[in-house]
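Example for tutorial group B:
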């Protein structure tokens, strides 16, 4: 079972931003921007493109709703989306609030406090529809 599966199951704490029966969104613990959120399927699958067409479509629609909540919580020009998936063997999408294209630099990590993480997650969660 991957660390992301354990997070989605509630076995490992996370900063939940949104969820439904098939998908879970939570803050990246090594964010590159305030509001950097990960979207995962609850069903463990290593490679995003191994999801069925239906699952991938549903995941993108869920991510769109999360992105709208992020944009409400953290005003930005756009919310960028990246699929990397080499560090954790569980399909996931990174959603990052952007003011410029340079904001999507995964080498630059923020160092946030527990209270900052809680506040960020609550802002996104309250805007998720």
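The residue assignment follows.
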């Amino acid at each position: 079972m991957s660390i992301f599966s354990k997070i989605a199951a509630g076995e490992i704490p996370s900063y939940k931003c949104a969820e439904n029966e098939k998908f879970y969104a939570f803050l990246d613990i090594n964010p590159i921007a305030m509001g950097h959120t990960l979207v995962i399927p609850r069903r463990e699958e290593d490679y995003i493109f191994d999801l069925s067409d239906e699952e991938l479509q549903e995941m993108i629609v869920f991510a769109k709703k999360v992105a709208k909540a992020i944009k409400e919580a953290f005003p930005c020009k756009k919310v960028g989306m990246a699929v990397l998936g080499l560090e954790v063997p569980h399909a996931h999408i990174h959603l990052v609030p952007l003011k410029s294209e340079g904001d999507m630099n995964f080498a630059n990590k923020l160092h946030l406090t527990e209270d900052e993480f809680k506040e960020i997650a609550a802002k996104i969660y309250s805007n998720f529809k």
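Residues 2 and 88 are 7 Å apart (CA to CA). Compare this with the pattern of hydrophobic and polar residues in the output above.
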